[in-house]
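INFO  loader      accepted 1 record
INFO  loader      residues=102
INFO  predictor   begin
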Amino acid sequence: MSRDEARERVVAKLRELTFLKDKPIADDTEVYADLAIDGDDLEDLARWMAQAFGVDVSRAELGRFAPEAGKPALGWFGLRAYKSLTVTDLLDAVETRRWPSR
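INFO  predictor   done
INFO  writer      dumping tokens
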């Protein structure tokens, strides 16, 4: 599968998961910061990446990229900082078959 074909499938899945349906999605779009995909939806994305592309998500630490399901985005001293997770990172994961580890 080409990177462009993978991009089409990944962008379609992101559109399905985000409530920001009209938001443009480019390679540098942030999954959490721009599309507000977190918690159960981020878990769904990881499972889908594993099923659709064979990406190994066994060591995925999703809480590094967005708030986990049932946990607040706020920490003791305000908003938590989350690691970047972009469309490019997801496409790289398709190619390497490994979830981003940053």
